[in-house]
Amino acid sequence: MRLPVGLAIAVALPLAAMLGFQQDTPPPRTPLGSSTPNVSITPRSRTPVADPNESITDRRSDIRVDTTLVLIPVSVTDPMSRFVTGLDKENFKLSEDKVDQEITQFSSEDAPLSVGIVFDTSGSMGAKLQKSRQAVAQFMKTANPQDEFFLVEFNDRPELVQTFTTETEEVQNRLTFTQAKGRTALLDGVYLAMNQMKKAHNPRKAILIISDGGDNSSRYTETEVRNAVREADVQIYAIGIFEPIMSRGRTAEEMGGPALLAEMAEQTGGRHFAVDNLAELPDVAAKIGIELRNQYLLGYSPKNAARDGKYRRVQVKLVKTTGLPQLRAMFRTGYYAPTQ
Length: 340
Prior knowledge:
Blueprint: E1 70-77, E2 92-96, E3 99-101, E4 103-107, E5 113-120, H1 129-140, E6 148-154, E7 158-165, H2 168-176, H3 186-196, E8 204-211, H4 222-231, E9 235-241, H5 252-266, E10 272-275, H6 281-292, E11 296-300, E12 311-318, E13 328-331, E14 334-336
Parallel strand pairs: 5-6, 5-8, 8-9, 9-10
Antiparallel strand pairs: 1-11, 1-13, 2-3, 2-12, 4-11, 6-7, 12-14
């Protein structure tokens, strides 16, 4: 029996229960009806925080499905990669397996996050460790009080060095003693992080990968990890610190690193950022943190009610709005239907 690992939420669960604190300083946004590329910021109102005494089963993931409701998180950016946070339900069109669906639930509020940091400590990371630590610190600065984090480090093999905690300093302290050595078991690190994510307490889940190359030491195969990622309800964001394409020191595994990270990230509705300038790392990490807290939530009742366990492909399109430039939507590309 295949459970709807990708997407499931009970109809009885009020949408408001999934919403939490938002960051004090929202990112730039493109306001509706504006013809200028400059943006302004309008703070959004806070909503009640989910009851911390609720059980995990009561607070389902924001991208799961039962028989009547599917919820899909969507990030929207303008041509300058600024987040657009002033859109309404009418600005979106959604389809499942090419069949248009009616959007019945809509929200643009923040919700608490459970985040796994997957951190490369292989030998080639030596000179890059300091900036990578700073990147994690900048990412943590975007956190909300109800967010929780864990840390997986990997070189020859992955290791869970910090279990879930709401204290961001605990993760950063663990990274202080990190040393670079060994090979790169990236796939094993992602797989371990996804297993740890099953213990998450928050409704939304994300993994942040920071690595400088492809895999050369994992037991799990790319196919196994891709399938696991496809079935999971976790958004993956990746920062790839790669040597220049023409670099003589770039291995075959490193050549395939960008494509591997990009594929894992994009099918979950996340993104991959290739970085060749170490100084950019902290800013990129902060950008990812801000993006996670500026997403829309689109809900619909699938017209296909079959409980066949099959993969349903989801497509989100943006309706052209006067005064706005061409916008881009990023979203999870599908989910598995329930089997019972």
